[in-house]
Amino acid sequence: MTAQAVEEKRPFDWRTFFQSYGLLLSLLLLCGIISLASDRFLTVDNLRNVLRQASINGIISIGMMMVILIRGLDLSVGSVLAFATVVAADLLSRGDVTGVTPLGAIGIAVFVGGAAGMINGVLVTWIKIPPFIATLGMMTFARGAALQYTNGQPITGMAELGAGVRFLGSAELNGIPVPILAAGILYILAYVLLNHVPFGRYIYAMGNNEEAAYLSGLPVKRIKMFVYIVSGALAAFAGIILMGRLNSAQPTAGALSEFDAIAAVVVGGTSFSGGEGTVSGTLIGVLIIAVLNNGLNLLEIPSFYQDIASGVVIALALLLYRAIR
Amino acid sequence: MTSHVRDLSWQVVVGGLLRRGIVLIVLAGLMTYFASQSDRFFQSRNLVNILEQNAALMIVTVGMTLTMLIAGIDLSVGSVAALAGAISAGLIVNNGFSFEVSVVVTLALGFAIGLLNGGLIIWGKLPPFIATLAMLGIGRGLTLLYTEGRPISLNGVDQYTFYGRGDVTLPVFGETPVSVLVALAIVMIVSVILSATRFGLHIYAIGGSEETARLAGVPVTRVKMIVYGSSGLLAALGGMLLTARLFSAQPQAAVGMELDAIAAAVLGGVSLFGGVGNVIGAVTGGLLIGVLSNGMNLLRLASFLQQMIQGTVLVVAVAIDMIIKRIEGV
Q1: Reported ipTM
Q2: In this complex, which of A138, A152, A308 lies closest to B141 when CB atoms are compared?
Q3: pTM of this prediction?
């Protein structure tokens, strides 16, 4: 009997079905429950709002997923977001002196974020500091740096100069908010990279077994550096979008966003033991958390319960996931 | 087999001493520097202050060390500390319970939350990072819910606040803060348990290799449950000391304490991967952080700058540690 014949004879397997679509079903179920509870949920405006709010955590989560795929961790994303953003905002708000254009400001932020990520990468790759500690150090340092740079005050006054940045944060193209478009493009790029580019496949190989990856000649160190740099750069880019939406750069922005991103990535099925996780899973994880928060807001549930609910949902999602496997 | 032989070799012993020494050398260097810069640093009142300010963190760090020794982690300690502070204060102020009852109930609650963490990790098979991260959110939410976002004042509840600001007169040492004595007692007890009891041996065995420990007959599940329970209990105790020192239970107390405790333990030579380190080292790491922040305050450094220096010190200290480790060939 060939394998194909076995395949055909097998009755519908719920187990496999849930393994493949369980996450998506959970998201739909959640949407269903919330739309039953509130008739304001299933409106175009609200859904657009959910996506717009999800875009920032979504962009950070792409980098976080790649870091977790290689058994790393990046606790510094929230602080790096704040630091990169205030530097870019400051240079932009003094554009007449510094000559920084909005596009240049985006470039500067991404560069600063990438540089912070590179320091993380060097600490982890060459000095072999555990990722938790290296990025915890960067988290403390970058938050202090952001506060020091701005003296603890938000930077405003980019309204006239920063039309390009505001475009990224709050404009719409054909009715689709630009942050959603930006996040969408990044997700497509990440999907292509991780599934159709050899370098991206190396990331999975390395997460499965770093030793084996090294022995088979994969550029292990370069992969690690790349992943940490991308994580820092994406955090900074998310910061620019946030700045565009708020029309100001806050040195306290992004606090605790590392935990939001980790939660989204893990709810999306990426394993802490590395090498396992998909871009689409991460996207659904991000959406589950965004929909949950939106639903709790619509139902006017006090924010205390929201902390509790997200904790419970993270734990339940993973318990279910384990049970199905 | 080779690795077992190497574990016992002199290189490791020397390396371990050297590495533990590094923290002490950095600590001594910092203290000398601060003493040369500020007359007030070496006054005994200031040194006692450092201990008093860090008593809660020391206790929480002890619990964190236990979880790290079994290759786990407990991110929920800050939230549990805040919840414990709120509930212990609320039981007395709002419900009229006695101080003793409130303490016992709160410690039991901390232990129960720890057991819940342990259950999620052992039977739910969640990574410790995630299980306790979920508990971090839940604990903070419950605290805000219970306090309705407002502090609970303990003005007039002297029996409670005594543990935050009170002194007892000891022979030789003179006036000693009670909170410091509580912290030292915890450090001593857990140190002895770790180094001189079968249970302590089991903890190190699990951290070295859980599978090997299981095959060798270590009751892995029970030990892990007790470790997570203890971490919750110690977090609750730390939270109550913090509350006593502030004279009120703040819903936003101890935010980020988990990260301080982890940083302290790692600075003190506790490995994030289990099996390596001890409580005395971890607490020394905590003191390093305490001395650094006290000294920087005396030098009137801006708090933002302090944060940058703290992050740098953490990374540099661990980097030195890693480099020594590599030279030692461990």
Answers
A1: 0.86
A2: A308
A3: 0.89
